[in-house]
Amino acid sequence: MRLWQETVSCEVYGNLTICRANLDGVKRKIDWCYDCKGRRRFGMWFYEWYGARQICGNCGRRWEDGEWMPFSWPVSDRQDNIEKVRTLWRKSAAPKEKP
Ligand SMILES: [Zn+2]
Q1: pLDDT at 94
Q2: How far is the CA of 49 from the centre of ligand 1 (A)?
């Protein structure tokens, strides 16, 4: 039970309970983007249980555990993702991944 509480956050809304894996950490990284066909700034988010989420700060493309993800709402998803990565890069506290 203790382990469960440490790896999951749950919020209760009346009859509905939403649980999600905790965020383990974030990193900044320069990597090759297959959509941009160039080296770009990336944000990486690490969660319990799952592979890393990686987002290109130039085109907003997202990879989950190395897998290319389609956009559900192409324009707004792209803008939201780009903004997330830019915010991460603005925060100097996020460590850079060593190559
Ligand atoms: Zn890109």
Answers
A1: 57
A2: 26
CA of 63 to the centre of ligand 1 (A): 11
Distance (angstroms) between ligand 1 centre and the Cα of 21 equals: 26
Token reading at 49: 């249980």
pTM: 0.73
Q: Please tell me the least confidently modeled range out of 18-22, 75-79, 80-84, 87-91.
A: 18-22
- Distance (angstroms) between ligand 1 centre and the Cα of 38 equals 8
- Mind listing the pLDDT tens digit for each residue in 80-90? 999 999 998 88
Interval between CA 45 and ligand 1 midpoint (Å): 16
Domain that residue 98 falls in: 23-99
Q: Are 63 and 53 in contact (CB under 8 A)?
A: yes
> Ligand 1 centroid to 44 CA: how many Å?
13
For the chain, the domain total comes to: 1
Residue 10 lies in a domain: no
